[in-house]
Amino acid sequence: MTVLDFIRLTRANLRYLLAGLLIGALLGLGYSLLQPRVYASTSTGYVTVAGSAGIGDVISGNSAAKDKATGYLALTNSRAVAERIASENPDLGMSAGEIAGNLTASMDNQSALIRVQATANDPVKAQTLANSALESVAYVANELEGGNTVRVVPLEDALPNNSPISPNTWRNVLLGALVGFVAVYALVFARRAIDTKVRTREDAIKSTELGVLGMLPKSEDLASTKILHEAGDHVSQESIRQLRTNLRFVNVDRPPKSVLITSSEPGEGKSTVASTLAQALAEAGQPTIIIDADLRRPTVAKKFRIDSKIGLTEVIAGQVELSEAVRQFENSQLFILPAGRIPPNPSELLGSDKMRSLIRELSEEFMVIIDAPPVLPVTDATLLSKAVDGTVLVATIGGTQREHLREATENLHQVKANLIGLVLNQTPRGGFGGGYYGFGYASTRGYKSYYGYTSDKPTEGKGLKKLKRASKK
């Protein structure tokens, strides 16, 4: 994965990452609120032994007190010291074991100074523990030495500290936020690694080794039975026109006159692509005929709201003339040959010589767009692909399996079909943040601002207004 891929992945999942950050921070805060408060207090003293010259010797380290202090550090956590503290301070309500576990001692390497830190669930208790610890250490040390040769002199008494040292709320919140953020990243990478669907343009290209002719955005108009000029979605209209333009430049010297539109599996939008592409070609002034060759689940007649009782099946069977089955759409350059009656043997009809002759005959006068069944469930599309100038595969972003798309491509290559490109359907509108990373078609806002649309109704763009003002001058 490149740096750009990583940035796109982050943008595509930014809201999930922020959610993980927030949830982790809240969990860290909740953990802190549930933990008991721990307060600390520190007292300092110095050790003197018989024969010390004074405090100067103790601090400078030129005295035997330094050696004694080093040996007495371990006494701070001893049971003897803890039991004495407990007996001298019954109000603490702590056992000897609890007291020993809440005391820590340290010593300055250059002197005989001892620092005792005591912790407790109350700041006053922590203060009492710290101050009592120095006295108890001296008492136990004298007992071990067999006399009053050792004395611990308080230098700085412990003071109550009302700020708890534990839990560290800010640290827990930050740590929780970091863990939540990393956990979401791990899930995103894991999902990407195990996902088998087409999520990006690169996924589709790698699976087929084909170029992308067009990208159709997610649109209720395209998903419905609306025809192209009825759709109020200007982004969808422009995406179809771009597909029309790219199709014309597939082969400049010999542009395709008959194009088969198919997909790897049902439900990927091939009929929508075929219908809208045929309309776009007709709108550009090119005589176009769309043939509904999906004799198993025909949808073209429903899309254009025409009667489908007579159609391709009857023409191939010789029951009616071609002119009787073809319908002109609203006095336009678009003609429709519906599927007709669903036959018991669709593959035989579509693979027949009559079907090939029909496509060849229509190609002399029309641009022929054929809506064919998907490749993997049935063989109809592979049979038809040999009778047309080019075949276009349709894949749905987030719906088509990469393996299925790869297998469909291989099936068409096996029959030497002329695969001219891909159409990617249902592409995200969020720009390069769509899908897992970096796929989106184009932002609606961008198209509307460029073409002068502020809603479903067209308005004058800035460029047009300037042109009108200039003409008045």
TrEMBL record:
Gene Ontology terms, MF aspect: ATP binding; identical protein binding; non-membrane spanning protein tyrosine kinase activity
Top-level division of the source organism's lineage: Bacteria
A Pfam family reported for this protein in Swiss-Prot or TrEMBL: AAA_31
Catalytic activity: L-tyrosyl-[protein] + ATP = O-phospho-L-tyrosyl-[protein] + ADP + H(+)
Annotated Gene3D superfamilies: P-loop containing nucleotide triphosphate hydrolases
Keyword vocabulary terms for this entry: ATP-binding, Kinase, Membrane, Nucleotide-binding, Transferase, Transmembrane, Transmembrane helix, Tyrosine-protein kinase
Positions of transmembrane segments: 12-34, 169-190
AAA domain mapped to chain residues: 261-387
InterPro entries on file: AAA_dom, Bact_polysacc_biosynth/exp, P-loop_NTPase, Wzc-like_C
Known EC number: 2.7.10.2
One Gene Ontology cellular component: plasma membrane
Keyword Magnesium among record annotations: no
Membership in a protein family: Belongs to the CpsD/CapB family.
Protein name: non-specific protein-tyrosine kinase
